[in-house]
Specification:
With 166 residues, the chain is of the alpha+beta class. It has helices at residues 7-18, 30-33, 43-58, 75-87, 95-99; strands at 68-69, 72-73, 103-104, 115-120, 123-132, 135-140, 144-149, 159-164. 30% of the residues lie in helices and 24% in strands. The chain has a six-stranded antiparallel beta sheet with strand order 3-8-4-5-6-7. A two-stranded antiparallel ribbon has the order 1-2. GO terms for molecular function: cysteine-type peptidase activity.
Amino acid sequence: MNSRPAFPLLVLIILLGLGGCASHQQLPAATDTGWKPAQNATPESAVANSLWRVFERYEGTPYQYGGMSDSGFDCSGFIATAFDEALGRQLPRTTSQMLATGKTVPPDQLQPGDLVFFRIKGKDQHAGIYMGEDKFIHSSTSLGVTRSSLNGYYWRNRLSQVRRFE
C-alpha cells in the first residue's frame, strides 16, 4: 500500500481552480476610453461613479486566486470588495454563490452595477461588473484588475448570464 499523498491530483485541482477566472482581453488605454463621471444624478450613474472610484484605486492590482485585497484579487474577490467599498453591499464570495443569488436580468437590459458572467471551457467561471457603454471591470488572470469590452474579441461570445443585486 502506498501512503504517499496524491500529489498529481492536488496539482490538477489547483490548476483547475486557477483557471476559474481566466481572461485574455482588455480595452485600449484609458486615454481613448477613459471614464467620465456622469453629469446626471440617476441611480445608475451614482452606482457607476462609486464603482469607478474603487476601480481606479485597484486598477492593475495583480490576480491572486482567493485574493480580496490590494495585494491581489480573483474575479469574485474583486467584485465582493468593490460592492462592499463602493456601495456598502455584501455579496456572496464565490462566482458559483453569486450565480445562485441575485435577480436574473436579460442581457439587453444591462445596467451599471449588474454582474456579468462568462462561460469559459464549458463552465460559467468568470465574472465582472458591468459599468455601462459596453464596459465591464474585473480581475483577469493575465492583467489583474482591468476593464474590458463586452464586445471585445475574447468576451463577445462568452457572456452567459447577467445578475442584479439590489
